[in-house]
Amino acid sequence: MAWIYLFLAALCEIAMGTSLKMNEGWTRPLPSIAAIASGLMSIYLLALSLRTLPMGMAYAIWTGTGAVGLVLIGIVYFQETASPARLIFVSVTFIGLIGLRFSE
């Protein structure tokens, strides 16, 4: 169950980052509320996962998954640069996250 909590926490982290991008400096109420709610939910779910999982590994996977997810959302939905170097380094990050998961 801890891994499910951690995965959901990472999804909420991605939702928070996306909402922060869309709230235009806290000037748009709905994305601002979504950013706060998803951020709080992310931290809550992370805390639940930490009941069982090692803290350093869980935190690294939580932040790394959020970062990879936000880079991909930035490329797909916000037309951010998808240079070969950027894609390579995001791939290396993703591989590192998988390695952390299975090195437990």
From TrEMBL:
Its main location: membrane. It comes from the Bacteria. Keywords: Cell membrane, Membrane, Transmembrane, Transmembrane helix, Transport. The chain crosses the membrane at residues 33-50, 57-78, 84-102. InterPro entries: EmrE-like, Small_drug/metabolite_transptr, Small_multidrug_res. It is a multi-pass membrane protein. It is found in: Cell membrane. Coiled coil: none annotated. Belongs to the drug/metabolite transporter (DMT) superfamily. Small multidrug resistance (SMR) (TC 2.A.7.1) family. Gdx/SugE subfamily. This is Guanidinium exporter. It comes from Herbaspirillum chlorophenolicum. The lineage of its organism: Bacteria, Pseudomonadati, Pseudomonadota, Betaproteobacteria, Burkholderiales.
